[in-house]
Amino acid sequence: VAPADETRTLSLRIEPYGSDRYLLIGRDVTALHRLQGVRQDFVANVSHELRTPLTVLAGYVETLLDTDEGQDPQMHRILSNMHQQADRMRRIVEDLLLLSRLETSQPDADWFETIDVARLLEPILNDARLVSGEEGHDIRADLDPTLTLWGVPRELQSAFSNLVFNAVKYTPAGGRVEVRWGRDEQGRAVFSVCDSGIGIEARHIPRLTERFYRIDVGRSRARGGTGLGLAIVKHVALRHGARLEIDSTPGEGSCFRVIFPGP
Ligand code: ADP
């Protein structure tokens, strides 16, 4: 029994008890809750502290690349590699910061607005075509321009672009990527990305939204992944009352759907 002035966190569960009664079971999870808070603060602080030194380092490397010494082929290769790695670290840090903001803070009411999703997706699709480049993916979009969404634009932009870029990343050259925004048969607003890519074995699917969970770490890194994309998608979906559904067949392709509530 805690002193009256101490806040405790309880986890409550209701279980059937006999045929006509229920049992309410309470567990004190205060210590676990505190630990989770400490972990979240630590990640947020580390990411924040790494941001400035990384920017400075990348800046110096860029300066060196522009000097006469930087034009020497061997030096140029080393500096370009350093620049790429600094950029990768910067993306991981930015994703970690975004994720910790999504986990720890509720969105302000005034971040929400009516979003023209078809318009929000335009630059994402253009960037995806640029990234695909010579790999020549067939990137198609079927977007309902009349269907708007009440949400936080920068969060949805981040979630939708993660799904579109993943489809390009995990689909071999020339493959198909189909992006849809519209209503399903039940009248719910759905954003979906389906690809004809490498697919995912069923046993991995439940764990894909964990931070840094990757099926093939080498492939993810080589393609510029941070391992945080789907964790971001899941949290953004949750904040919008939506859920993420994943269907996939190894060797054939995958479909990721963000299903928003209600008609
Ligand atoms: P990453 O930065 O590694 O892409 P994500 O969190 O976005 O991290 O995705 C986690 C893992 O899920 C990826 O490493 C990859 O193994 C798998 N994955 C995500 N999207 C797809 C897809 N469209 N097709 C096949 N595998 C995918």
TrEMBL record:
<keyword id="KW-0067">ATP-binding</keyword>
<keyword id="KW-0902">Two-component regulatory system</keyword>
<dbReference type="GO" id="GO:0005886">
    <property type="term" value="C:plasma membrane"/>
</dbReference>
<keyword id="KW-0808">Transferase</keyword>
<keyword id="KW-0547">Nucleotide-binding</keyword>
<comment type="function">
    <text>Member of the two-component regulatory system PhoR/PhoB involved in the phosphate regulon genes expression. PhoR may function as a membrane-associated protein kinase that phosphorylates PhoB in response to environmental signals.</text>
</comment>
<dbReference type="GO" id="GO:0016036">
    <property type="term" value="P:cellular response to phosphate starvation"/>
</dbReference>
<keyword id="KW-0592">Phosphate transport</keyword>
<dbReference type="GO" id="GO:0004721">
    <property type="term" value="F:phosphoprotein phosphatase activity"/>
</dbReference>
<feature type="domain" description="Histidine kinase">
    <location>
        <begin position="45"/>
        <end position="263"/>
    </location>
</feature>
<keyword id="KW-0813">Transport</keyword>
<keyword id="KW-1003">Cell membrane</keyword>
<keyword id="KW-0812">Transmembrane</keyword>
<keyword id="KW-0597">Phosphoprotein</keyword>
<keyword id="KW-0418">Kinase</keyword>
<dbReference type="GO" id="GO:0006817">
    <property type="term" value="P:phosphate ion transport"/>
</dbReference>
<dbReference type="GO" id="GO:0005524">
    <property type="term" value="F:ATP binding"/>
</dbReference>
<protein>
    <recommendedName>
        <fullName>Phosphate regulon sensor protein PhoR</fullName>
        <ecNumber>2.7.13.3</ecNumber>
    </recommendedName>
</protein>
<dbReference type="GO" id="GO:0000155">
    <property type="term" value="F:phosphorelay sensor kinase activity"/>
</dbReference>
<keyword id="KW-1133">Transmembrane helix</keyword>
<keyword id="KW-0472">Membrane</keyword>
